[in-house]
Amino acid sequence: MKRLEFHISYICQHKCIFCSEADRMDNFKNYPLSLLQIKTILIDRMKKWYNHVNFTGWEPTITPWFLELLKFTKKLWYKIYVWTNWVMFYSEKFAKESLKYIDELSLSVHWYSLNTCWKQIWLKYHFNNFPIIVNNIEKYKANNNFFFLNIVINKYNYFDTEKIINFVIETWYDFKQVLVSNIAPEWSAKHNYIDIVFDLNEFRNYIPNIIKKCNDNWKILRFFWLPTCILEEDFIEYSNDEHWEERHTIERFLNKNWKVSLIDIYSPDNSRERTFVDKCNNCKWKKNPCTWIFKKYLDFYEF
Ligand code: SF4
Predict the structure, then answer these.
(1) Contact of 294 with 184, CB cutoff 8 Å
(2) Peptide bond before 227: cis, by omega within 30 degrees of 0?
(3) What integer is the mean pLDDT of 261-284?
(4) CA distance 103 to 178
(5) Complete DSSP assignment for 221-245
(6) Does the pLDDT value for residue 299 go beyond 80?
(7) Which H or E element spans position 247?
(8) What is the pLDDT of residues 167-200, one digit of tens each?
(9) Count of H-run helices and E-run strands, the chain
(10) Burial, 223: exposed, middle or buried (Cβ in 10 Å; 0-12, 13-18, 19+)?
(11) Are strands 79-84 and 260-267 parallel, antiparallel or unpaired?
(12) Average pLDDT for 229-250
């Protein structure tokens, strides 16, 4: 599989406290990509044998031509992955049309109640709309759909991960895989890190129950951006680092002449913004599968 991660949108109506993209949106919201531009790149990459594309951004589904883009991309035989805050799936028409073309859909849910939603997203309707959204997705799911649940863990919810999984299971969203993602201190999340970072050694205590919850409910589980030693020997198979596949990211970029353009970033592994510490020197996981600890984390906690 040759993977593209394509940041097609620089707009979003949410204000998640852990968002790593907020200042990029500020930089680039006046430089939207055109549908023609995206189509041209997709054709070019298809000729270079790319066959998997993740449409992401900020929120990709709210671009006015998103359904047309899905149709076009499917004609090029790409496998389509959409990473979304799911706001557009409140529309039954949108769910019906889009799920014909989407192969993999990742819904981000980081809370399990009105209060926990409000603390992290600052939008109450987001919680209230969830049952309708799940209903639309389940009603129009197609044979090709593989559904993910993405939980970004942060200071306000790392102790609630099991409750969040349980909450989503009880809504009957039939996801196959859970991604528990540590916050990445990049862009605005780097500036806000002091407000959202939490102690990974304390999070370690919750891991066995999270694994049990997923196993009991036949869900695949992956921990993303977590050092392998936080998982320990018995749970290494749940590390997403082990399953990382190289990819190219296409995104907006401000060059040194202050000109906005597009950049293509190759990521052979998942080590961006991460570093070794002393204890890594003798560690058997140093080269595989671990990709270490975020440098910024070390400003706040011992590791
Ligand atoms: S390489 Fe370092 S961070 Fe990774 S598992 Fe080993 S000790 Fe932990």
Answers:
(1) yes
(2) no
(3) 87
(4) 16
(5) EEEES--HHHH-GGGGGGBGGGG--
(6) yes
(7) strand 247-254
(8) 999 999 999 999 999 998 887 788 889 999 999 9
(9) 13, 11
(10) buried
(11) unpaired
(12) 86
* Residue 296, pLDDT score: 95
Does residue 70 surpass a pLDDT of 90?
yes
Q: Where are the beta strands (DSSP E) in 49-176?
A: 52-57, 79-84, 104-108, 146-153
Residue ranges of domains in the chain, CATH in brackets: 3-299 (3.20.20.70)
Q: What is the pLDDT of residue 171?
A: 93
Length of the chain: 303
Q: What is the best residue among 223, 225, 226, 228 to mutate for testing ligand 1's pocket, by most ligand atoms within 8 Å of CB?
A: 228
3 state SS of 198? coil
Q: Which residues contact 186 (CB under 8 A, 6 or more apart)?
A: 20, 272, 273
CA of 73 to the centre of ligand 1 (A): 39
Both ends of the chain: CA-CA distance in Å? Answer: 35
What's the mean pLDDT in 246-259? Answer: 86
Ligand 1 binding pocket includes 29 (Cβ within 6 Å) = no
Cα 56 to ligand 1 centre (Å):
30
Name the residue with the closest Cα to ligand 1, atom 8.
229
Mean pLDDT (the chain, rounded):
91
Instruction: Tell which wins on pLDDT, 60 or 288.
Output: 60
Q: Which two tokens stand for residue 245?
A: 């596949």
Q: Which residues sit opposite 82 in a β-bridge? A: 55, 105
At 1, which amino acid appears? Answer: M
Cα 263 to Cα 212: distance, rounded to the nearest angstrom: 41
Query: Of the segments 23-37, 89-103, 117-131, 234-248, which one has the largest average pLDDT value?
Result: 89-103
